[in-house]
Design goal:
Length: 135
């Protein structure tokens, strides 16, 4: 009987050691691999895709917009008949791109190549309502 108790004690100890090792060493590696993979996917998506925005304004406006490096499709709509000028500026105020510069009505859709992710200034001079949509 004492041999059976010793055998059972050895088996229970072995099972506990194996269980502790699997929980301690096995669980963390899988979790960290999944976390690293998920983090990489989120960073990749955040860096490569423009997000949608829609601005609806009236009259002159200078607005900060964040753009991500790559192509940004910008659509401007102005139903009025007055002069409509829309420029994209760097944050230091230097001209980056002219989006529109003509008498209304204006319905312009342009793809602008953004050289670096970050804030840009949308500068619009006009009379009346207008909108900007980025898809």
């Amino acid at each position: 009987m004492s041999a059976i108790i010793k055998y059972a004690a050895v088996m229970i100890t072995a099972i506990l050691v194996i269980t502790v090792c699997v929980l301690f060493f096995g669980g963390n590696k899988t979790s960290s691999k999944i976390s690293a993979s998920a983090e990489k996917a989120v960073k990749l998506e955040a860096v490569t895709e423009q997000y949608n925005i829609f601005f609806n304004f009236n009259g002159d406006k200078t607005q900060i917009i964040d753009l991500i490096q790559g192509d940004a499709v910008l659509k401007l709509d102005y139903p009025g008949s007055s002069k409509f000028t829309a420029r994209l500026l760097n944050t230091d105020g230097t001209l980056f791109s002219i989006l529109a510069d003509k008498d209304g009505p204006v319905s312009e859709k342009q793809t602008v190549l953004i050289p670096a992710s970050g804030p840009y200034l949308l500068d619009v001079k006009t009379i009346g309502p207008w909108s900007l949509n980025r898809d």
